[in-house]
Specification:
The protein folds into 2 domains: 77-245 and 341-377 and 427-448, TonB-dependent receptor, plug domain (Ferric Hydroxamate Uptake Protein, Chain A, domain 1); 263-332 and 383-416, no CATH class. The strands form 7 sheets. A 6-stranded antiparallel sheet has the order 6-7-8-17-18-21, with no helix packed on it. A 5-stranded mixed sheet has the order 1-4-5-2-3. Strands 11-16-15 form a 3-stranded antiparallel sheet, with no helix packed on it. Mean pLDDT is 82; it is low at 1-46, 60-68 and 448-457. It is mainly beta and 457 residues long. It has helices at 6-21, 48-55, 82-87, 93-97, 175-178, 398-405; strands spanning 77-81, 136-140, 143-144, 164-170, 185-191, 197-205, 214-225, 230-241, 264-267, 278-281, 284-286, 294-295, 303-305, 311-313, 320-321, 324-326, 343-356, 362-375, 384-390, 411-416, 429-440, 442-448, 451-456.
Length: 457
């Protein structure tokens, strides 16, 4: 149903009046002959053609040749075209766009890698102004896209990348038109609906550290039929990204990265010495567990085990505070155990068929099939602390059982990384089957004299 607003009629009327006014010859100021300021008599010998030529001088304002992006829009708009995207040489259009300052805070393969059940692992979703993905509306050709997780946000990795013509980013004022999911703004990815010919892409890359290797294969084709009334186009792309693996136990970063220092905030529990109660320190060592096992209470407190079950005194650091020491044996630290970047594999297919009823109206159908798989390690092993082990446990070495029972103790507290267990992995898989049948165009709603007004349906 098409609704014509009164505002549109008013604009049509104003436009019509303005158009009719342009056909009237403007009145020029004249003075009486012989008065001061009167124009000198025109030489009758000057040809009329030369007089008209002098009046028809052309003035070129060079500033009008400068192409502005989004500055004429009613709301602040950033426009990124296909050339800008191609220059970034990114395998995923999401990665290219998140280099914009306004999209910092978006989720992607490098966020949520420490989690097991958030549903955001490998999910590529925009967040404008850092207000969150559920407050940023993402559109494809001005249309909403089905959500890829429980929050309703789409996965940009499932969009067709090769046929993207430009991206419009509205950074303010959009919630008045689109609703609360556009409080942060709107990102509209616009496809090239009249692409002609064939193009393909083959690219690959790797990081300075020799990891996160990726390669992408893609192709797109378009062709018009029946005097350009029918237009067909399709694209297919495959992208594989290895990601950046975790560093494992200890303080060593993956593939030679050395910026991890096992830093944490320590509680000194001292309130009267004139210094802060909490201090920030590197090389923080947990006193509640070790890589292979640590007794944390009773007469055997500080006894650590190795992979073979042998025990020896644990190397505590100094000074020690609640739950942590500084330095010492930090081989059981798990801070580098999460993947830095999830691996991802995506396969995307897109097709569009359009039939033009006339130059302003079209019936079209689109299909978008996509599958995105990711993989990440949230942490190494499965560390546990505060476990209670009875002194009568039959698996305890004889000397440990004897020492445990001394002094009337019946159990002790125990913590370990469970490093002997296989590392857990999270492997989300998202599939999209999107079919759209629609029509778009313009409707002639008014015509007065030589002025016409059209409104998009």
């Amino acid at each position: 149903m098409v609704q014509v607003k009164s505002t549109t009629r008013l604009l049509c009327a104003v436009t019509s009046i303005a158009t009719l006014a342009l056909h009237h010859t403007p009145v020029r100021a004249q003075t009486a002959a012989g008065t001061v300021g009167s124009s000198p008599p025109t030489d009758s010998t000057v040809p009329a053609s030369e007089t008209e030529a002098s009046d028809a001088a052309t003035i070129v304002v060079s500033g009008t040749r400068i192409t502005s992006r989004g500055f004429t829009a009613p709301t602040p708009t950033t426009i990124v075209n296909a050339e800008d995207i191609a220059k970034t040489a990114q395998p995923n259009i999401f990665t290219a766009l998140t280099e914009l300052p306004s999209l910092q805070g978006s989720t992607g393969t490098n966020t949520g890698t420490f989690s097991t059940s958030s549903g955001q692992q490998g999910l590529s979703s925009f967040s404008l102004r850092g207000l969150g993905t559920i407050r940023t509306l993402t559109l494809l050709d001005g249309q909403r896209v089905v959500g890829a997780n429980v929050t309703g946000v789409p996965d940009i990795s499932q969009f067709p990348q090769l046929l993207i013509q430009r991206v419009d980013i509205v950074t303010g004022g959009a919630s008045a038109s689109y609703g609360s999911d556009a409080v942060g703004g709107v990102v509209n990815l616009v496809t090239d609906k009249r692409f002609e010919g064939f193009k393909g892409v083959v690219q690959g890359g790797i990081t300075t550290y020799g990891d996160d290797g990726q390669f992408m294969l893609g192709a797109a084709a378009g062709h018009s039929l029946l005097d350009d009334r029918v237009h067909l186009e399709a694209s297919a792309e495959y992208d594989h990204e290895n990601g950046v693996p975790p560093g494992g136990f200890g303080v060593n970063g993956p593939d030679g990265r050395n910026w991890f220092h096992a830093s944490t905030l320590l509680n000194t529990n001292i309130l009267n010495n004139g210094f802060p109660q909490y201090v920030y320190s590197n090389n923080a060592q947990s006193t509640t567990y070790s890589k292979w096992g640590l007794i944390t209470s009773g007469p055997l407190k500080g006894t650590a085990f190795d992979a073979a079950g042998n025990h020896a005194p644990f190397q505590y650091g100094s000074p020690c505070y609640t739950g942590f020491c500084v330095g010492g044996d930090n081989s059981g630290a798990v801070g580098m155990g999460a993947s830095l970047v999830s691996s991802m594999q995506r396969l995307v297919g897109y097709g569009r068929a359009g039939f033009s009823l006339n130059e302003d109206n079209e019936i079209y159908a689109t299909v978008n099939l996509a599958q995105v798989k990711s993989r990440n390690q949230p942490n190494p092993g499965a560390f546990r602390s505060g476990l209670t082990i009875p002194c009568t446990n039959p698996y305890l070495p004889a000397d440990i059982a004897t020492g445990c029972a001394s002094g009337g103790n019946t159990s002790f507290q125990y913590g370990l990384d469970n490093a002997f267990l296989p590392n857990p992995y999270v492997k989300p898989e998202r599939q999209q089957q999107r079919f759209v049948l629609g029509a778009e165009g313009k409707l002639n709603v008014g015509k007065i004299g030589r002025a016409s007004c059209r409104e998009r349906v």
